[in-house]
Amino acid sequence: MNTMNDVLSIKQARTQHPIHSLLRDRWSARAFNGELLSEEELMTLFEAASWAPSSMNEQPWRYHYAHRGSPGFDRLWDALLPGNQAWTRNAAALVAVVGKKQFERNGAPNESWMHDAGMANANLLIQATSMGIHGHLLGGFEPGPVHELLGLDLENEAVACLLALGRLGEIEQLEEPFRSRELAGRERRPLTSTVKHITNG
Ligand SMILES: Cc1cc2nc3c(=O)[nH]c(=O)nc-3n(C[C@H](O)[C@H](O)[C@H](O)COP(=O)(O)O)c2cc1C
Question: Which atom of ligand 1 is nearest to the CA of 11?
């Protein structure tokens, strides 16, 4: 039997260079314990998100959240693809990350909206890690029901992704293949394949 501490250790990033422990210890968890998060905890996460940088300080992100046990949670959960539904039942909250695609000041297209929503999500996840809360971003959902639930203006708004939040639960509760995924180490390609030093010019 694998304990929660085993998983915390397995999921720590094995880095080539030392990084901050909050970055090392974040991962996309699946085994949630079913406990709700308080409004204050959630607002702290959204506060952290809101301090992300964004093009022209537009802050194109919007967060729509629902606590587990509420009709909003159930409708977001219904929109998830089956492979994501299996392990999100015990999440404390589901969040829809919505982006505004146009600048408020002049209606011009904001090419950075998705990038900037990602910046905000990164802030949120690192804040969550510092609070012992785990987040898992989700691209696997049917957009139609989410648009309908949130009443989005699709000319100007789009769902960047969904996000499951919660505290860690027992790994044994997970069905396969999710249990094995939760017990697998995290992988990244080597930095040499990502980083190029510009030496010409
Ligand atoms: C935009 C986005 C969409 C994602 N969609 C899903 C998803 O639908 N289901 C899932 O299990 N994980 C999803 N993930 C999580 C990634 O698979 C995960 O971040 C990646 O494998 C790296 O693992 P780590 O976050 O644990 O380091 C998504 C991540 C992002 C950023």
Answer: 26
Provide the domain count of the chain.
1
Task: Give the C-alpha distances (Å, rounded to integers) separating 193 from 73, 151, 187, 198.
Answer: 40, 42, 14, 14
pLDDT under 50: residue ranges of the chain: none
Ligand 1 centroid–CA 101 distance in Å is: 23
Average confidence score pLDDT of the chain: 97
pLDDT at 195: 97
Ligand 1, pocket residues at CB < 6 Å:
27-28, 84, 137-140, 161, 186
CA dihedral sign, ordered 15, 18, 19, 21? positive
CATH number of the domain at 148, please: 3.40.109.10
In a domain, 199, yes or no: no
pTM of the model: 0.97
Distance 29 CA to ligand 1 centre (A): 9
Residue 4 pLDDT: 83
pLDDT for 130 equals 98
- Residue 2 is predicted with a pLDDT of 72
Tell me which amino acid residue 142 is. E
Angle at 161 between CA 190 and CA 103, to 5 degrees: 105
Number of H helices, E strands in the chain: 8, 4
